[in-house]
Amino acid sequence: MEHVLITGGSRGIGANTAIECARRGFGVILTWNIKPEAASQVVERIQADGGRALALQLNVEEISSFSQFRSDLENAMESHWEARGLHGLVNNAGYGLYNPIETVTETQFDSLMNVHLKGPFFLTQTLLPLLQQSAAIVNLTSATTRVATAGVAPYATFKGGLEVLTRYMAKEFAGRGIRVNAVSPGPVRTELGGGLSDEFAALLAGQTALGRVGEPDDVARVIAGLLSADSGWINAQTIEVAGGYNI
Prior knowledge:
The protein has helices spanning 12-23, 36-48, 66-81, 106-127, 153-172, 198-206, 216-227, and strands at 3-6, 27-32, 53-57, 86-91, 131-140, 179-185, 238-241.
């Protein structure tokens, strides 16, 4: 069995991705930061459906903790499943902040940078020795890198940086056959940034060709697909999953 690690897998897109990956036969390791009970519920659901999963704590903002996390990950995989190495890594953990540029503080800016760009960079670097030949990495970006949305400038800026980093990872990891792609969700009905009100969701649906906002499963299926052999010739791409948002 191949195993994948999904950061921020206790809720939203991450949780649905964990469930979808398990459904497709992957062993899943998901991380949580502040809600262990939510992570446990995802693990229990996967196990109830006959899959295998475990959850580990990780704060992607704390780069100094990554070495210990790698050790914990190796030990957990060995003790639970007698498994070594990862087939896939999904850099998904994150949060939203809605502030106009003139009110963003340096602390807020640095936190968003650490979570959405610096964290994925150094976590991938730390876990690279565990990634098997022909593994796959998926980085979660955002349609806000294409469609300027007032109030999310720092978030979108770092997601844009992650799109560039995706191409560089694909270039540098190619010698090991590791594919690296980005998935860029449009408006999705999750808890990110406090969620979408019905009124705001209706507004966004009116700006989307397919006439609705996305659901976490819409994005999760694409991520799981990119981890699979079916996408073995897709590399260095950013794939927007948005139903035709603002086209």
